[in-house]
Design goal:
heterodimer; A: 200 residues; Immunoglobulin-like; 5-stranded antiparallel beta sheet; 4-stranded antiparallel beta sheet; B: 190 residues; mainly alpha; Protein Binding, DinI Protein, Chain A; two-stranded parallel sheet; 5% strand
Chain lengths: 200, 190
């Protein structure tokens, strides 16, 4: 009987040690994975808003910066990805595309009124000053940079990436574009929701 | 007691159902019912198609629409800024010409400059008004197209202070609705 009791005690001790407690790191990783899964399911480029002026479509897409971080670092270890996001969460990236109805090249003289090379130069270096963002607190934030993605007439649109800094991630923004290139006036894009949780 | 009432009700319903069946079984009354149903559906169809095919024409006050559009207000503000800046420069030049401290040759040079700048200002005034107006109207047209599609309007008549349109009933005037719509679209809210 005594032996049986001893055996039972040893069994209990072993049972206690066998149930390993989940580490903090693991729980954080699963929380981040869950958050990023939600973002992925919403669609990285789902927040697209289009304004049409004459025959040109101007589309602004707010892309979460996690998209670029995951593209660069991969999704195997999400902790460094998330820490990088935390450091840069006040940055906003907006994809802006210009597309003509009949898929004509918009940088030609017919649309811009300038030489093709000058139009490319303007898209690369001069477009920055034409954009600004108005936050829900009515703060005006100038565009901090533009990257023109040249497609050498392969794609039927012209795409630029716009960068803005110092915007709270929870704030709703309105992008304002004063079009000096195609001379279509002022175009505004109101981004409605900052984040939508998916009910699982 | 309750069971008795339920049973009694059931019997009554059954009897009513049987009598209605016996009526339908009579070929004359069945045909009458079918005929009346067909006539009723035909009348309904004619009425509905009549309503849907009715041309929807609405009226809009052009000047009210143009002045109330946010894009007009914003472009007007930027134009005024530019105009004031140019006019201040011109006034400065004029006061320089008027001063007695400058020589005749300098005065002549400044006068030429003044005439050139004055012409530029007049040109700016004319060009700015026409180009910006055309931009605004083209935007109003594109938004109005979507507005008419959303509301199933087939024709929107626009007139300034009812000069071309002699009479438009208040019921078909949609200036305010269109103005709210175009302002929302302009702000990117729709």
């Amino acid at each position: 009987m005594k032996d049986l009791n001893k055996l039972f005690c040893v069994f209990c001790v072993l049972l206690c040690f066998s149930c390993k407690k989940e580490t903090k790191e693991e729980s954080r990783n699963s929380e981040i994975r869950d958050r990023y899964f939600n973002l992925e399911k919403i669609g990285w480029k789902s927040r697209a808003y289009t304004q049409k002026a004459d025959d040109i479509d101007f589309t602004a897409i707010e892309v979460p910066i996690q998209y670029y971080l995951l593209k660069d670092l991969g999704n195997e270890n999400l902790i460094p990805v998330d820490s990088l996001y935390e450091q840069n969460k006040k940055e906003r990236v907006i994809e802006f595309t210009f597309q003509q109805d009949e898929e004509k090249d918009l940088l030609t003289n017919d649309f811009t009124g300038m030489d093709y090379t000058d139009a490319v130069k303007y898209m690369s270096f001069g477009l920055e000053k034409d954009f600004y963002v108005v936050t829900s607190k009515k703060d005006t934030i100038a565009c901090s940079g533009v990257t023109f993605e040249r497609n050498y007439k392969i794609a039927p649109y012209q795409k630029v990436l716009l960068f803005f800094s110092g915007i709270d991630p929870k704030e709703k923004i309105q992008l304002v574009y004063t079009d000096f290139l195609f001379r279509k006036g002022i175009l505004k894009f109101q981004f409605k929701d900052t984040y939508t949780q998916i009910a699982l | 007691m309750r069971i008795f009432f339920v049973k009694k009700n059931k019997n009554l319903l059954l009897r009513k159902f049987l009598t209605s069946l016996s009526m339908i079984k009579k070929p004359g009354s069945l045909l009458l019912i079918i005929n009346s149903l067909l006539i009723f559906s035909l009348i309904l169809y004619v009425i509905l198609t009549g309503i849907s095919s009715k041309t929807k024409i609405v009226f809009v006050n052009n000047s009210e629409l143009f002045d109330g559009f946010t894009m007009t207000k914003e472009l007007k503000r930027t134009g005024e800024k530019e105009f004031i800046a140019r006019k201040t420069a011109l006034d400065n030049l004029y006061s320089q010409i008027q001063s007695k401290s400058i020589s005749a040759s300098e005065k002549e040079i400044l006068m030429k400059q003044f005439i050139q700048q004055k012409e530029e200002l007049e040109q700016f005034n004319q060009i700015f008004a026409t180009t910006e107006s055309s931009k605004i109207w083209s935007r109003i047209h594109s938004y109005a197209e979507d507005f008419s599609k959303e509301n199933n309007y087939q024709l929107i008549v626009g007139s300034e202070n009812k000069t071309n349109v002699l009479y438009a009933d208040e019921k078909i005037t949609v200036t305010k609705e269109l103005l709210t719509y175009i302002n929302k679209r302009y702000e990117g809210l729709k």
